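Hey Z.,

So I finally got round to the adenosine monophosphate thing we talked about over coffee. Here's the setup:
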Amino acid sequence: MTDKKATIELGWNFDNSYTTLPKSFYSRLSPPPVHSPKLAILNESLAKSLGLNAEALQSTDAVAMLAGNEAPEGAMPIAQAYAGHQFGHFTMLGDGRALLLGEQITPSGERFDIQLKGSGRTPYSRGGDGRAALGPMLREYIISEAMHGLGIPTTRSLAVVTTGESIYRESELPGAILTRVAASHIRVGTFQFAARWCSIEDLRALADYTLQRHFPEIETEENRYLLLLKGVIKRQAELIAKWQLVGFIHGVMNTDNMAISGETIDYGPCAFMDTYDPATVFSSIDVQGRYAYGNQPYIAVWNLSRFAETLLPLLHENEAQAVKMAEDALGEFSKLYHSNWLRGMRAKLGLFNEEEQDEALIVGLLNMMKEHRADYTNTFRALTINQPEGTVLFGTSEFTEWHEQWKARLTRQPEDIEAVQQVMKNSNPAVIPRNHRVEEALEAAWKEGDNTVMERLLAVLSDPYAYTPEQVAYTTLPAESARPYQTFCGT
Ligand code: AMP
Ligand code: MG
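And the result:
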């Protein structure tokens, strides 16, 4: 099946530009075949947009490719080397359970990494088995597609296949492999690897490659490495603001999980906040709250500082000068983040023009939400559909006063109420992947082999701003007994 004809039928069109980098950046390998691969879910619309034949991808031979049993024609499988600060501690990492098949060039000329996650051991596996369990891979599929539906830059999920093999964690679990699609898998940690273990020429090669791939417009500029730093800072400021605006908590913002492209990557113990509280943490391993909701912008700038350090030798031959350039660039993050956040918050409240007091109005609402333990998504949804009722928050006199102020504020702009409602609908998702809904879908899928619950959830999440009657059932909160929710890395 790996002959040319089959590849053409499937639509694979691989390039392998990453292998033009110095050899220390990757290891060539073919993964160990798995026993009996079966398709658990396929993202047909994503397949089409990649130029793939969704129907042909369901054939036994194509599924074997998605399990890593056979490499598609033109693919040159590699595991990528990288390092990273994990919870603040620097370590050599690398793809310990992932395999980059190559880069799919789409019919419109875009380039996407096609990566198999859970495909087996690699030279970077350390003590791990290189495998993944079905539950966490389906979870990544659901949450990454939900993020895409929310309009947030993210890696995507093309498919999950089960391997027919068991893996062993605390219990015996069905093994699975996720096909992840990404603008690239270059991470802050990839630069940390280069700066720590490679020559300056190799570091420069990585920086030039990254520029070509993600910032082609500045590739030939004289100060291109400074522009690279600034570009990455800008994208992260935009990304983290988007996370905050929808209440997304990544859960494990280690530097190896921060993509240079500006996409959200590595869905492990992530979850969406329900009750508004900046201290919210779901991850069982984040005991100190390092990656709590309210800390995410600060962690982003910490990670970006680690990125800037790796670029110092490229920024200026004089180190003091290079440090100054990096510091000035990093100093922009908080301004960029804040303006993105404020713009997004204004839209969530239907504000088109700007008034000095807007931030106080926004913060006032958030403070009340925290005090009265209001659900983040549902509070904004209720304001959007003009039904602020039925919660403790909405029953307080404090809120009534705030509501009056907000209504008055809305009159101080030319836009009418329809325009206000439209911008609010476009900015406040009616549905998010609520933890109990995700769990329910996963249980049905992996314990009972019933995908229908997951498919319904995915359909609703694909257009979270639709405000349709079908969404209403997905806005209800879990029973108090289902909280507090805890997430696990899923490795
Ligand atoms: P993550 O938490 O998914 O970002 O992974 C952190 C590091 O651990 C990466 O280098 C992974 O490739 C590696 N890793 C995670 N799970 C496994 C596993 N089961 N086997 C080998 N390496 C793993
Ligand atoms: Mg990772």
